Give the backbone structure.
Amino acid sequence: MVSERRVMVVSQNPGIWQRFCKVLEPWPLEVICCSSVREACNILTRQSTLLVFCEDSLADGRYPDLVEAAKAAKSKVRIIAMFPMEDWVDSDPYLEAMRQGAWDVLRTSFGDNDVEWMVVHAIHDEAKMLSAVGDG
């Protein structure tokens, strides 16, 4: 049996929270919004979470800090690093994020389908992991 699925949005921008809540409203998910790495790490250590969407840079840290906290908590959470569009012009945040341990990358100018695709992909990944545990 799969536990209740949670998706966390870590952003200092309430507009980002609102966009995610609107996109994910029809889904059977609990959406948790927080504004700091510290708050997100605290939640990750106490609650099973399917997916975390985290802005690249927050007042108290960055998404790699969440990656490390998830590893320390032995969490299988998938962390999506979010970057503003302008960061994609002069660099390749995707490659850097993957090197830092992110599961995927999303532009902060995301579309609804981008978020939905990542949720579906995470649910399939979770099912595959649970199946592998059951087979082993």
